[in-house]
Predict the structure.
Amino acid sequence: MKELSKYQIDIYGLEDKQYVYEFESGDAFFEEMQQDIVQNGHFRTHLTLDKSATMIQMNFHIQGSIGLICDRSLEAFDEPIELTQRMILKFGDHDEELTEEIEIIRRSTAQINVARYIFDFIVLSLPMKKLHPSQRSLTDPVEATDEEGTLVYSSGTPAGNQEAEASPEDAPVDPRWEALKKLKGE
């Protein structure tokens, strides 16, 4: 808990203006979070906090690297991260999470701990498929950038089949479809 205490911000006595905070974190941060997703890493967080009478707007800029294990080769590697996120805390009568970006906190709240927000932003920025940089290639379907995506399954006939090359107008029409077209008025 000592590691996470440096992420405490006293908001009770803050004036309505902008404040800047800098946090530098390492492996101890991830150990204190008591989770199994990320074990090690090093990152720096630049937090701009805008306090007003009705809300607190926090803009996070997180930069660093996180230690991951490759899903294919089981090699350890460092994944660089750089992200910018925003969090809005509105003052109210109860604590409630409205959206991913907006929370209501009690007016009487004296301190907020931003460690949870930083951790959540980092974990959500990690790739679903963790690949070592040597395993990544331009032909990897995950990295494909074409607009239409990659065809995984097709219910069509194989390319060598002559019937597949025939146009749809040449194919015989099922009599059930013809009956439905008559009902429709075509």
Q: What stands out?
A: The radius of gyration is 27 Å. The longest helix spans residues 115-125.
